[in-house]
Structure prediction request, 185 residues.
Amino acid sequence: EFLGDRVLGLVMAEALLSADRAASEGQLAPRYNALVRKETCADVAREIDLGEVLKLGRSEMMSGGRRKDALLGDALEALIAAVYLDAGFGPARDLILRLWGSRISAVESDARDAKTALQEWAQARAMPPPAYVQVGREGPDHQPIFTVEARMETGEAERATAGSKRQAEQAAAKALLARMEKQND
Prediction:
């Protein structure tokens, strides 16, 4: 997984640079992050049904391990490492480019995650960064559902619910940013 992450990173950096030679590092970095983050790796793993072939312990199977972003992302990185170790960089690069396919050309020119975008929006207006507060947690321990509220110092807030704290924070930030931008238009 450690090695696969590095091979994936190199291939994505090379592919993004080739796709847009005029882009600055500041433009490429968010695109890169969007392509290599755990959620993207998990989505790719789902597309190839990688979860179905994982050998899992009983408790991991019972807790829905075949659907977990972290487990799927790690497994895909381990698969990339195995291809690299077995066949070399060329075949590993070919695999990655085939699996990521149109994601590379379709990644948004401004692919910042919502929390970063909201923080930058606030900083540009001399406001403190938003706070993220977990306001709820439901469901069993192996499949929790988190509710998070993104709050600005001015009192504006938005809530979101998701299967991980990170996803809930991102969704709340996205909703709050959309509302703040609409108010300031």
